[in-house]
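WARN no homologs supplied; continuing
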Amino acid sequence: METMTNTTNAIVTQAVEQANAFTISIWFLIGAALVFFMQCGFAMVETGFTRAKNAGNIIMKNLMDFCIGTIMFIFLGFGLMMSENYLFGLIGVPNLQIFTDFDHFPWSSFVFNLIFCATAATIVSGAMAERTKFISYCIYSGLISLVVYPIEAGWVWNSQGWLAQLGFVDFAGSACIHTVGGISALIGAAMVGPRIGKYTKEGKPRAIPGHSLTLGALGVFILWFGWYGFNGAAATNVTQLAQIFATTTVAPAAATCATMIYTWIKNGKPDVSMSLNGALAGLVAITAGCHTVDILGSLIIGLVAGIIVVVAVEVVDSKLKVDDPVGAVAVHMCNGIWGTLAVGLFSKDSGTLGLLYGGGMTQLGKQALGILCIGVYTAVLMTVIFFVLKKTIGLRASKDEEVRGLDLTEHGLASSYADFMPVPQVLTGKTTTPTAVPPEKAVEVNLMTPANKESAPDQQPKLTNISIVTKQSKFTELNTALTSIGITGMTVTQVLGCGIQKGNTEYYRGVAVEMNLLPKIRIDIVVSKIPVKTVVDTAVKALYTGHIGDGKIFIYDVEDVVKIRTGETGFDALQDAT
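OK structure emitted
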């Protein structure tokens, strides 16, 4: 009986272990799918932080990062990275097993590492946005997936790699992915040069705001969501997965708060785009040690990351004179390095105990050596790749192509937002039928020439255009006041301008933006029956506050008016239909 019970227990235990192993494998692939969804996040961040005329080009680059990278990784990249025949702990020997041994090929490992490879490649897109040739970018993307990422990542994630043997820790890629992508971004952006108009002749940076912070914010939230798979996919049990989820939440939250407070104090207002970068910086920094640090450690890592990203953006922009529209260098390179070193400070794992938890300098030294070697290898190889591209087919689009936008010149897109372009409005549904007027009468338009005015001055009341420029917030009050005196028609336009009110200085990503042109509203009214003085007095009374910025009223003589429907002119053209 006891033997039977033991056998039953063994069977149950084995079944539970198999079920757990199956669950972990399923989660591993789900995590890979979440990482793939991060491609969407990167695309939205880069598109939102750049100008609309290049949106399609950026989307295309993010699409091709993954597609070209997949082909490269199949034929060579995966073999260099994860081959069982690994030479001297440095490089794998490709065997094309994916084509020759379908049944025994490690599909889960291939899919997971392929998606990570695409992430490393796509980081560069934003830093080189708005001025890079599409063909050159495609070649770069293929090469980083072919030889750059696979070799250095193999050092860390292949169990035979020399950094893995050393005890270097990079659980999900602060060094292997983000530092590599950030270094590549720095070199690429420096070699391609800044966008036209980015710097003055004296070298002072100018702000070039992105066209949609909404898209940028959407991208950040997508990336944060995908990062739970990015960091958590390799978890070996539910407890560890929950811990990773916690640190992956706390660090970016702390980083965002730090960035918001720092920019608020520094610039007088919290910077939206920098706060979005702060969230990404926290995610990058926690990636290396997400499985070994506690909540206090993740808080500190995030807070430091939030400050680093702001300082790094300003150094790259103002000191190095490298134009990085999305902050890829600050987010990925600088915080990838910080996150990698932070493992040597805050790790609580007994085998990799950090300096601040009594582990001494051993693990910190390993982390420093690993990030140094990965950085030097990437810098040398990417410098060669970008240099060859620049000297052969060229890296940069022409001046005309850059000014017109890469959407049009590279892809034939008049606009990536075609449906949002102003077009004649088509009205459908029930409409009011106007009084019928014969076409022959409608086209008989007799314009009031100076000669006609002199011959019949009493028959043509004077026409006057009153143009009012004021604050947008005052329109409702003005409209109500004008309606009360019988004004039934007006043209309203959103405009930008300045007079005595010269504007004010704001900041975009740490760079001063001279707001010389302020948003205003312009109301044009042509009057004939109502006295001009009555209209002006009413407008002044409605708009007056006594402060600079109340606006101005311009008064012009109107030569004539033509009502298109009836052909009526002058005074008659301005009267209501009867």
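DSSP finds 20 helices and eight strands in the chain.
OK
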